[in-house]
Amino acid sequence: xxxxVEAVIGxxxxxxxxxxxxxxxxxxxxxxxxFQGGSNAGHTVVVDDEKYVLHLIPSGIxxxxxxSVVGPGVVVNLRELFEEIEELDSMGIPVYxxxxxxxxxxxxxxxxxxxxxxxxxxxxxxxxxxTQKGIGPAYVDKxxxxxxxxxxxxxxxxxxxxxxxxxxxxxxxxxxxxxxSVQQLAGEYCRYYEKLEDQVVNCPEFLRRVRQQNKKILFExxxxxxxxxxxxxxxxxxxxxxxxxxVVTGSGFPGxxxxxxxxxxxxxxxxxxxxxxxxELEEAQDEYLREKGGxxxxxxxxxxxxxxxxxxxMNYACAVNGFTDLALIKLDVLSGLDELEVVxxxxxxxxxxxxFPASSEKxxxxxxxxxxxxxxxxxxRDCRNFxxxxxxxxxxxxxxxxxxxxxxxxxxxGPGREELILRT
Length: 424
Ligand code: GDP
Ligand code: IMO
Ligand code: MG
Fold this sequence. Notes:
This protein is of the alpha/beta class. Among the domains are: about 105-195, Adenylosuccinate Synthetase, subunit A, domain 2 (Orthogonal Bundle); about 260-420, Adenylosuccinate Synthetase, Chain A, domain 3 (Alpha-Beta Complex), CATH 3.90.170. Helices cover about 30% and strands about 20% of the residues. The protein has 13 helices and 20 strands. It has helices at about 20-25, 80-90, 95-100, 110-125, 135-145, 155-175, 180-195, 205-210, 245-250, 285-295, 310-320, 360-365, 390-405, and strands at about 5-10, 30-35, 45, 50-55, 65-70, 75, 100, 105-110, 200, 215-220, 260-265, 270, 305, 310, 325-330, 340-350, 350, 365-375, 405-410, 420. A 10-stranded mixed sheet has the order 9-7-5-2-10-1-11-15-19-20, with helices on both faces. Strands 14, 16, 17 and 18 form a 4-stranded mixed sheet that branches. The chain has a two-stranded antiparallel sheet with strand order 3-4. 6-O-phosphoryl inosine monophosphate binds next to α5.
């Protein structure tokens, strides 16, 4: 059996360009698996000027020969899943035949979304800035051992009981439930199951068979390392593990068989939502990156906060995930800057820190130590070889690679499928 198992993981705060790299690697993969998160993700793939934004469905879906699996660690909003299937179908993608859904994945209902919105409201000025896609409340149900899984949808009574109890809980906390009734919701979700039944798989067994046939598996992370519930900037994080550990717990595939872990990072940094962000630029300064980079959320449309690349943060992401390779995205956005900066360290209370702090309060107080680089004026979107890049751009990439001691195997110079430099 040849080990042909890759994982694509966000190295920063999400939106690094994972969709584009997954699409690239999926061209030679047999199966692509999402292992955590839900429709809070928005993964963009641009093919022949057509833009696809995937939320629940893996980005491998655009590849003809690839099977896409919504894994057991994902919380699945079935209403949104079917909307996404229909939308892709209308764009000519035969989703259904390429899609599988794990029987152990937890189901996300509209009351999870409403609870998410209410919880955010009650947090006032200390709100997390969630996508309001119900992610936190769905994982709460899972961890509290009261959630409903895809396999449970075959039992109508169970679905009715769950909806009744959940709406009761919602009303006890937040007042009158204004969505569909218990009966309607249970009916709607049982019908989704009937439509989906043939695509439901027992994920660990399914992936074992795939491996026994020497086929290639690709794991698609959503969100990013700094949004990880355990290793991110807690509590300003999501409720799952977007890091390498999530691949294992969220799929039922043995971790020691994953032999390539590609960390995806922008050539600078962005973050949506609240929480510490040491390399963030002041309001007027970040305008250039936001406008040129089109830094508005793919799921919520919110403007993303922008800053320089932060190697202190990236080094920590390398420690957590053990990246074997990096993909550096949006290098083209930096064209036209006279000078660019990179954060290489943090100072706290007059001392240089040697480790990435665990405390978000402390992280919010650090003073970044930066190094400046000469910029380049040339547009680079047509470059397909590393040697075609301006020397300043090459110096920038080489510096990152040397500092992190991880090969930058991919350099992305535009959103399109072809706008990619391979250095493998
Ligand atoms: P994901 O969530 O990690 O998949 O990333 P998103 O899709 O949310 O955000 C990445 C954005 O950058 C999308 O709009 C992509 O089309 C775009 N993009 C990807 N690679 C590049 C690149 O190299 N250059 C530019 N300018 N845009 C890119
Ligand atoms: P992709 O997969 C960027 C952020 C939200 C918020 C925090 C918690 O496209 O990279 P949640 O709704 O998950 O409870 O929100 O996480 N967030 C993302 N930021 N990209 C994402 O996904 C994100 N998914 C969640 O903005 O700060
Ligand atoms: Mg995104």
